[in-house]
Design goal:
The chain has about 70 residues and is of the alpha+beta class. The chain is about 30% helix and about 30% strand.
Length: about 70
Amino acid sequence: MSTTTYTVNGMTCQHCVGSVTKEVSKISGVTAVEVDLASGAVAVTTEGDSVVDFEAFRAAVDEAGFDLAPGQG
């Protein structure tokens, strides 16, 4: 199991958290998603030692209507 944490900008409520969680959970290999609304941190856990595909993560966040904080990836 491997966990990677990214920062997502623009989340302001639990609906935002739910949208990001739903989209990121669709990525192949993702087993858990934890979002900290206050900091914007999104921790993504994947199977085995693999890490979440960054471009897939970026696309999922975009689909949810949000942006990654600068300097990631």
